[in-house]
Amino acid sequence: MTSLTLVRRIKARPSIVFDALTTPEGIACWWGPDAGPVLVAETDPQVGGRFRVRFRMLDGSEHESTGEYLEVVRPERLRMTWRWRGGAEDSGESLVEIRLRAVAEGTELTFTHSRLRDEESRRSHEAGWTGALDKLERHFLGIDQSSR
Asked: Which of 4, 48, 93, 138 has the maximal Cβ count within 10 Å?
């Protein structure tokens, strides 16, 4: 088993970033590694609640992930199980933890995906999450947060 950790600085308050991580409207703005659309985003961000997200990549392939929220501390932390649904991608259940910390520029987001099967799975997930978190960062650039 292996894991990966990515850190981003996002130009928005933690409560606004938290909403982008936990609401269908927020998820639709950033989920997925490239500019392809989110097709389905369902969330129930409470301990024991579930999420399901399906997206289409620019190459036309579709991917779906599901999981259960294990810890929800608004606006500081999310911890949830993670599993790809169907196909060769399904390598069993893993764990995603996201920590948000207020900083002068907005929010420091620390994203950890652990219990990944092997190094190949870690590399694949790192590429995907890097693309998604880049989109999350870009989503908040140029948005006026003072009115929120």
From this structure: 4
* Cα 107–chain centre separation: 15
Helical axes 14-22 vs 119-140, angle rounded to 10° = 120
Confidence of residue 87 (pLDDT cuts 50, 70, 90): low
| CB 96, CB 115: distance < 8 Å | no
Residue 148 lies in a domain: no
Average pLDDT for 28-40: 95
Residue 147 lies in a domain: no
Higher pLDDT, 15 or 142: 15
Residue 76, number of CB atoms within 10 A of its CB: 15
Radius of gyration of the chain (CA): 15
| Residue 103 structural domain | 2-142
